[in-house]
UniProtKB/TrEMBL annotation:
Residues spanning the membrane: 12-37
GO terms of molecular function: phosphotransferase activity, for other substituted phosphate groups
Protein name per its UniProtKB record: Bacterial sugar transferase
InterPro entries: Bact_transf
The species this protein was found in: uncultured Sulfurovum sp
Domain Bacterial sugar transferase, residue spans: 9-197
Family: Belongs to the bacterial sugar transferase family.
Keyword terms: Membrane, Transferase, Transmembrane, Transmembrane helix
The keyword Transferase belongs to this UniProt entry's keyword annotation: yes
Length: 198
C-alpha cells in the first residue's frame, strides 16, 4: 500500500467509526448492561491483542462468556460452556463486536484487515509472512468471512487447538497476505457489505 492508499483507508476508518458510534452507542451500553448482569462482572471485555508492527493493544468487545474453572480458554468452540445466553445472541448478531468501533477510531484497528490474535500467532510470524504486521488488524476481512463459522468448525474436530494452529491459522495467513498485496478500496467496501449481509 502506498501513502495515498494508507491515507484513504485511515480517512474512511475515522469517518465511519464516528458514524457507527453515533448510531450504535445506545446498543453498546444496553449490551454492556445485560452482559454485566449475566456474567456478574463488567460487561466490557478487554484483552491484549497483537496489532500493527507487533505492538500490543487492548481490543474492546461485549463480554459474552463467564469464567468457569477447568475449561480451556485458548480456543472457543460453538458449544463452549462459558458462552452466556445473551452472549450467544450478541455473537450471532455481531453486537459483541460493536465496541471495536472505538479501536478503529483510535487507530489500533481498521474496518478491514487480518483479525487481531492473542500473542503467539501474528507476532511469531517469520519472513514474508510478517507483511501481515504492516497494517492494523481489522474487524472483518477475507479470512474472517471465510471462517465466519470458525467456532462451529472447531466444535467438530477432536483437537480444536491443534486444528486451528495447523490448518486454519496457516490458511488465514495465506489469505491475509494476498489481501494486503492486492489491496484496493473497492475490495474493502465489498468485504464490509458482505459482513453486514451476513
Amino acid at each position: 500500500m502506498n501513502l495515498w492508499e494508507r491515507f484513504l483507508k485511515r480517512a474512511f476508518d475515522i469517518i465511519f467509526a464516528l458514524v457507527g458510534i453515533f448510531l450504535t452507542w445506545w446498543i453498546i451500553l444496553m449490551a454492556m448492561f445485560i452482559a454485566s448482569i449475566e456474567t456478574k462482572s463488567l460487561g466490557l471485555f478487554m484483552q491484549k491483542r497483537v496489532g500493527k508492527e507487533a505492538k500490543l493493544f487492548f481490543v474492546f468487545k461485549i463480554k459474552t462468556m463467564k469464567a468457569l474453572r477447568g475449561i480451556d480458554t485458548t480456543i472457543t468452540t460453538a458449544n463452549d460452556m462459558r458462552i452466556t445466553k445473551s452472549g450467544k445472541f450478541f455473537r450471532d448478531t455481531k453486537i459483541d463486536e460493536l465496541p471495536q468501533l472505538f479501536n478503529v477510531l483510535f487507530g489500533t484497528m481498521s474496518f478491514v484487515g487480518p483479525r487481531p490474535d492473542v500473542e503467539g500467532y501474528a507476532d511469531a510470524l517469520q519472513g514474508e509472512d510478517r507483511i501481515m504486521l504492516t497494517i492494523p488488524p481489522g474487524i472483518t476481512g477475507p479470512a474472517s468471512l471465510k471462517y465466519k463459522n470458525e467456532e462451529q468448525i472447531l466444535s467438530k474436530v477432536s483437537n480444536p487447538k491443534e486444528y486451528n494452529d495447523t490448518v486454519i491459522w496457516a490458511d488465514k495467513v495465506a489469505i491475509n497476505k494476498a489481501y494486503i498485496r492486492n489491496w484496493s478500496f473497492k475490495k474493502d467496501i465489498e468485504y464490509i457489505i458482505k459482513t453486514v449481509r451476513g
